[in-house]
UniProtKB/TrEMBL annotation:
A Pfam family it matches: ABC_tran
SUPFAM superfamilies noted in UniProt: P-loop containing nucleoside triphosphate hydrolases
Keyword Plastid attached: no
Keywords: ATP-binding, Nucleotide-binding, Transport
Name listed for the protein in its UniProt record: ABC transporter, ATP-binding protein
Gene Ontology molecular function: ATP binding; ATP hydrolysis activity
Domain ABC transporter: residue ranges: 4-215
InterPro entries: AAA+_ATPase, ABC_transporter-like_ATP-bd, ABC_Transporter_VariousFunc, P-loop_NTPase
Gene3D superfamilies: P-loop containing nucleotide triphosphate hydrolases
Top-rank taxon, per record: Bacteria
SMART domains registered for this protein in UniProt: AAA
């Protein structure tokens, strides 16, 4: 069953540049869909268009409901796109607790669990401004995972992660999928994609092509 359906989805700048052109695709419930492509291929723009975060033309159907820019998004989504939205003067746990105020179902135990699952210490008093790039990336991933949302969108999540952290992320994504989350992941990290994706599609200059079906 499809969670998201896009038909003729396009994004055009005022100067005529086409960032997305006639995208036809679907995201099935329970899959881990990887969007591949080089830098500048349009992966991030596609994620934003599918989430209603950037203007686009065409049809977008989310959870069987037609979505228009400006509407409330039909489903809850955990999102990490581009740089994590972090408050540098807060600790890791304070950042997550702030986000949890918007997610009534999230308990403080879950906040602790998500941090530990990414090897971040919930008791640490270190401020985010003193984090390494890898630690900031992990905290951004933690924000996206918090709440076990039906849709989790990750944009280049392995940036700044070491090999051990990447393997841990693979296991986390698989676990959250087993718990009912659908994943949409943009990445150029081939090793990560091969380990985690159930389906892969490729972007080239704003166009989308089905690449392969993986089990």
């Amino acid at each position: 069953m499809d969670l998201i359906i896009a038909r003729q989805l396009s994004r055009k700048l005022r100067n005529g540049t086409m960032l997305l052109q006639d995208i036809n695709m679907s995201v099935e419930k329970g899959e881990i869909l990887a969007v591949e492509g080089e830098n500048g291929a349009g992966k991030t723009v596609l994620l934003k268009a599918l989430l209603g975060l950037t203007p686009s033309s065409g049809d977008l159907i989310v959870d069987d409901r037609r979505f228009k820019l400006g509407d409330a998004y039909p489903i809850k989504a955990g999102i990490l796109i581009e740089n994590p939205s972090l408050i540098n003067e807060f600790t890791a746990i304070r950042n997550l607790r702030l986000l949890a105020t918007l997610l009534p179902q999230v308990t403080d135990d879950e906040v602790h669990t998500v941090l530990r699952s990414l090897n971040l210490d919930p008791t640490s008093r270190t401020l985010v401004k003193n984090f390494s790039l890898g630690m900031k990336e992990k905290l951004g991933i933690a924000q996206a995972l918090l709440g076990h949302n039906p849709l989790i969108v990750l944009d280049e999540p392995t940036n700044a992660l070491d090999d051990k952290s990447k393997m841990n992320l693979v296991l986390l994504v698989r676990n959250y999928r087993d718990l009912g989350s659908t994943f949409l992941i943009a990445s150029h990290d081939q090793d990560f994609i091969k380990q985690v994706a159930t389906r892969r599609i490729r972007m080239t200059e704003g166009h989308l092509n089905e690449k392969s079906q993986l089990v």
